[in-house]
Amino acid sequence: xxxxxxxxxxxxxxxxxxxxxxxxxxxxxxxxxxxxxxxxxxxxxxxxxxxxxxxxxxxxxxxxxxxxxxxxxxxxxxxxxxxxxxxxxxxxxxxxxxxxxxxxxxxxxxxxxxxxxxxxxxxxxxxxxxxxxxxxxxxxxxxxxxxxxxxxxxxxxxxxxxxxxxxxxxxxxxxxxxxxxxxxxxxxxxxxxxxxxxxxxxxxxxxxxxxxxxxxxxxxxxxx
Length: 224
What we know:
The protein contains six helices and six strands, in the order H-E-E-E-H-E-H-H-E-E-H-H. The chain is α+β, with helices and mostly antiparallel strands. The chain has one domain (52-217).
């Protein structure tokens, strides 16, 4: 009996050690899974400095998040995001609804790249540029989101956005390279429920960018 009890306690201790080890490595596992998922879905390499999922508090924090262009664009940087911090409504998530009470999004740098074949990464990768939504466009986008994820988007109570710089990199003619500081720090928007609620942010980015986006994306540099 003593021998059985001894082995029982050893087994319990081992399970406890394994459980603690799993909890300590959970963030690392999630970070690797997220990087692999991005690579599989976009074909672009991704690096995440730190991924934290709160086990007690409903919080997700991602820091030092970088995405790189595919080989056709030289593997150059695409996005540099110092922080994404999300606090969500756990009760809503149980009901298949996404309700974010707070989101901080810090876009440090966006790199628009034209490769030696004359292709621009935003267009080649199918990145959607801001446009005026047609009547009912927001509802359609939300429906498509639900179809893809199975979740109803309920909105963001407080969205805190920072935007650093935008760069244009011409791999064929480096003399065209440009850097534009946007300089938006901690812009807070309340009750963001549809893409249309971000229209003010898009206008501010365009104004801060001066002629950068109209020159780079408007065709004055013969981009395609």
